Amino acid sequence: MGLGLLTGYLMTQQLWAVWRLLQADPVQTLSTQENEGAVGISYQERQATKRYTIQHTIQDGIERVVVRPHEPRFETPILFQHGMWHGAWCWRRWQARFAAWGWETHAHSLPGHGRSPTQRAIKRCTLDYYLSFLKAEIDRMARPPVVIGHSMGGALLQWYLKYVADLPAAVLVAPWVSHSMFAAGLLPLVRRDPVGVLLMTLSWDATPMIRTAARAAECFISDEALISPEELRARLGPESALVLYQHNPPFWYPPLDVATPMLWPTRSYPNRRSDARRPITARSTSRCRGRGTTS
Questions:
Q1: In terms of CATH architecture, what is 2-289?
Q2: Closest Cα to residue 80, out of 69, 68, 94, 63?
Q3: pTM
């Protein structure tokens, strides 16, 4: 009886997810979704160093960290988009490094991430919902930026290039695959952490995948990392499991032709059969064609 109830519940949850994602329309979301955060500045801090200035704010419900070099060398800014469970905090060292090179950089936290207050229950957040906030951050900048996206941030960058517009350049750091998260990584994920996958499916909250410091470290850092597993886990927040479902057919198909110059590093896996799809690799040309298979 218990197993039957659990199976029935899981099937109901799966049907709910499919129904929920079939209702999602990225074009409509981008035209109707509004920032529901509290209007005004609720936090503001400014810090100056010898080379750059850091402006940290929470305005209209969105946390932002802007680092401006005292001696800028480039007109085009860089915008960093974080991935699952993360926030603007994860880019601080990179922002300092790029500022030392003369780049102005911007990082923000999606609602319910970092220090951005929650606007929608996390388990009901979808990629098209997050995409509307990435678009808003790009729109508010004086010049179109180079966008660097990590993990889910790389998926959001793919969605932006398909549903919104091209960019001066795009850098996808350890991004989600371009075609199907399930096809590329579901079985390895289940093998690695079957308990986490079950708990995630039961709750539609992906937090069980990082439920301990060890699990979080396995997902994100190496032994040489500048942050300990305990420090990492303390900074990570909740995340929707729906986003993992949505980056799959029939909810998502990648554009076959992207005009934005892209840097999409690939990784080779020993003893892994080659995929028939041609991966998008690091390119410096103005036009990239092909299909990505990297993770």
A1: 3-Layer(aba) Sandwich (3.40)
A2: 94
A3: 0.88
